[in-house]
Amino acid sequence: RNNVEGLKVISGERIWMEWKKILVGNYAAELTLKMLELGLGPYIGLPANPNLQEFERVWKASQAKNIKLNPTTLLAGLLANEEEVLDLHGRLKMSGAERDNAIFIIEHRQDEPHPDDPLRTYQYLQ
After folding, report:
1. Percentages (nearest 5) of helix, strand, coil residues in the chain
2. What is the separation of C-alpha 84 from the centre of its chain, rounded to a whole number of angstroms?
3. How large is the average pLDDT for residues 110-118?
4. Neighbours of 44 (CB within 10 A)
5. How far apart are CA 20 and CA 101, in angstroms?
6. Of residues 61, 65, 75, the one with CA closest to residue 24
7. How many helices (H) and strands (E) does the chain have?
8. What is the pLDDT of residues 34-76, one digit of tens each?
């Protein structure tokens, strides 16, 4: 907690590389929440008030269904809009695909799946 400001001098690419390893691990939610509790959020590009409820909901749902999520999919749970994704991308220098994946998830988070085919909603996106 006392040394959190030291993250200012660590490259965003390095932070993202290490955080991705955490996000695919067995304790992704616990470690990420502890990082936020210790005040790392602003230094790693997160908004002042990350969406902790959505992050935990996504994590619990993936665990209940035994699904391994892409790190960006889980990370998107902390973000509310495209601006927050772009701010995070500016700090972490994620790949374009990772950035676009997070934006896609946020834009379509509230979509209702088709009752017969859950993927149909997304098959016709342009």
Report:
1. 60, 0, 40
2. 11
3. 73
4. 20
5. 14
6. 75
7. 7, 0
8. 999 999 999 999 999 999 999 999 999 899 989 888 999 999 9
User: DSSP label at 114?
Assistant: P
Compute the distance between CA of residue 25 and CA of residue 32 in angstroms, rounded to an integer.
11
Cβ neighbours around 63 below 10 Å, total? 13
Q: Distance between CA atoms of 37 and 10, rounded to whole angstroms?
A: 20
Question: Looking at residue 44, what DSSP letter applies?
Answer: G
Rounded distance between C-alpha atoms, residue 86 and residue 93, angstroms: 10
Give dist(CA 23, CA 75) in Å, integer. Answer: 8
Q: DSSP label at 70? A: P
Task: Decide: 36 and 56 in contact? Cβ < 8 Å.
Answer: no
DSSP letter at 124 equals: T
Give the pLDDT of residue 125.
Answer: 58
User: Shortest CA distance to 69 belongs to which of 25, 18, 115, 113?
Assistant: 25
29 neighbors 56 (Cβ within 8 angstroms): yes
